[in-house]
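Hey, I was hoping to borrow your eyes for a little while. For a while now I've been wondering how a particular protein folds. The fold is given in discrete form, as structure tokens running alongside the sequence. Could you read through the record and tell me how the tokens relate to the sequence? Take your time with it, there's no hurry, and the full record follows here:
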Amino acid sequence: LFLTGHRYISQAAAKIDVDFDYDGPLMKTEVPGPRSRVSFQSIHSLFFFLKNAEAVHFFCNYEESRGNYLVDVDGNRMLDLYSQISSIPIGYSHPSLIKLLQQPQNLSTFINRPALGILPPENFTEKLKESLLSVAPKGLSQVITMSCGSCSNENAFKAIFMWYRNKERGHNNVTKEELESCMINQPPGCPDYAMLSFMGGFHGRTLGCLATTHSKAIHKLDIPSLDWPIAPFPRLKYPLEDFVKENQQEEARCLEEVEDLIVKYRKKKKIVAGIIVEPIQSEGGDNHASDDFFRKLRDIARKHGCAFLVDEVQTGGGCTGKFWAHEHWGLDDPADVVTFSKKMMTGGFFHKEEFRPNAPYRIFNTWLGDPSKNLMLAEVIKVIKTEDLLNNATHAGKALLTGLLDLQ
């Protein structure tokens, strides 16, 4: 539909399922309301949450939350633009997911969580094809599932380091010295490799990921870290059309610094094995760069033999109008590794065949994901297709942007 002021509203968004969608927000109390405040007192009494409780905003009623509306324990119904830190793909309590959970044949998948690396269910490959592999980024035929965004990036780093060492080694024969030295965290068994990241980036809070996270000091304070290179991320000036030359110069400056850091660290005998970047720096302040910047960054990675890792934990799943945000870039050579989590219901990473570990147990943990999440993701993907949600995201984004510009 085209409305006054060229605001685009998708037809899908205009259709309301009266048995599912609310017709708008409804506020009954201030937020947090009285019931939330009582719950605050209870949670403060628990040791585990003693400090984390200070981050809690209010308590929720998920039984009453539907679609894009989150309901709190005081009955306040709010349009949820936060979406559980960008992790809800198709809204709260979607009928298709409820129906999926009610089907008897799916009961075993939700009750029995297997150690997938050694005892997967018979239909695991089939469900992977229906879910993750059905939306695999171009050129990436391999996938490893994980449980969260941090462990997705952490294990992607490991896959990159193994790939780089195998390139250097030129064969798969590991020496006795390598086997012995790795047990005491020393080279040559533990080579001095690094991941290059960007200031303002967020890639997780586990120890390796934290070395590439540079969004807030509170994430990193008091925690030992690794001497890995940190490049500046472009700080563009807006409106973009008024600062074309300045923004091109800013992006060129950042790309030059990336190359300089790779060379500088190589001289320090520390090899940059990979580059990690987000399509949009979300946690770090909603920072953007042009498609051309990312294409040139990919070229730099290839030129210096570095793996190119795109962190789609926050941007993957369709929220940019394409299933993967990096699809907007128009890369002539696909990313080597793409990590995901949040809206994908499960964590993990796609990768090129050459990044496949050369032995079992090298990328491993107890669960390696969760088959029930793949089952849910397959249903989410069906909903995205049948309800045309990628186009809906594009149209809704245009409507929102147009409205915001009108307010200036």
User: Anything to note?
Assistant: The mean pLDDT is 92. The two ends are 24 Å apart (CA to CA). The first helix runs from residue 11 to 14.
